[in-house]
Hints:
Organism: Novosphingobium lindaniclasticum LE124
Number of helices: 19
GO cellular component, one term: plasma membrane
GO molecular function: fumarate transmembrane transporter activity; malate:proton symporter activity; succinate transmembrane transporter activity
Membrane topology: Multi-pass membrane protein
Structural class: mainly alpha
Function: Responsible for the transport of dicarboxylates such as succinate, fumarate, and malate across the membrane.
Strand content: under 5%
Amino acid sequence: MHTPIIDTHESSAPEPSAPGRWYGHLYVQVLIAIAAGVTLGHFFPATGEALKPLGDAFIKLVKMVIAPVIFLTIVTGIASMRDLRSVGRVAGKAFGYFFFFSTLALIVGLIVANVVRPGHGLNIDPATLDASKVATYSEKAHDTSITGFLMEMIPNTFLSSLTQGNILQVLVVAILFGIALAMLGDRGARPLSLLEDVSLVFFKLVSIVMKAAPIGAFGAMAFTIGKYGVGSLANLVGLVATFYVTSALFVVVVLGLVARFAGFSIFSLISYLKAELLLVLGTSSSESALPSLMEKMERAGCPKSIVGLVVPTGYSFNLDGTNIYMTLAALFIAQACNVELTLGQQVLLLGVAMLSSKGAAGVTGAGFITLAATLSIVPSVPVAGMALILGVDRFMSECRSLTNFIGNAVATVVVSRWEGKLDTERFRAVLANREPATARPALV
Length: 444
């Protein structure tokens, strides 16, 4: 069955409103907004802090459309595949990729923390730390368990999965619905056609919402700088710098090698997604660019069925930046409090982090909550030590989100290529900024 693909003129990542004019590009507008937000927050902190609702409102607008976009993309993708064995094969390859690179990210964070030792010499007495500052995060982490996580994946009702804002619940319902629709055979053609038409409406809605991206980035960045101030980085500059450099090396070296073996340049992919990356940087949330990522990966030649499975799943199970942060931050706290962890304790920390990191959504603060969950199970490292990094967590959240976002984009291309479904000619043309003006045929 032919699956209509969204025309490139209806992209959720708006093209320049006035070709040839630099200020017409979304990424330029977001970059200017970020710079303006930093300036305002630095010189007028009270005003910057008061602009928090602008960033919050934009993220709420995006989250408003995330559930239906994921649902429609997955359902139409799976129903169009017809061969349900291929759905399981794609899911298996995706989870294999996620597990390997998520674990690798945890190991990288652990190694860097042992080599650089960013917390060494701080000599913090855990008894002097104000544990009440992280009490909220600890309480949320305490409620997290494997059983609880699995039960949380199942929504109370079919419709509640689309209203609760839980990506995993949307994923479960969409996969089941898509499989059921595929099993109907020819009788499912009419509802499938209807859902494909509805998906066009929602992607157009996304393109409308994305026009407000510069305003959201401006408000979010003004708030971050106004509330926390660049000066708050001074005492922990070693940790922040170590995390940023480690994440950058992971993207350039590890993901760069993966991209090279898959036949493309990581820098070309980053350039293609520059507007979304700047939006993630401005809002400190990879979730704000999720709908755009799905549309742009499909437009670049990845089939809808694979995009629909890999991207939403990756937002919960393929969080490279969050994983690097977890082991690096945990060892930083231990070093700062003069707690020497044995190799066995570090391996235990790694194992716990592997479990607690699964299911962390790509939203602001999730990494901090996941870190609390990890430390609460490893008693050697004081949970109260998280108060040391609370002031700079917002700045590290931006790097976590960027790394997570790039990791999921790479995963989508790699799985598409493994399946032999990547439109290589179109993919190379789009990354080289030579995108055809006409819509491409479906590859399902």
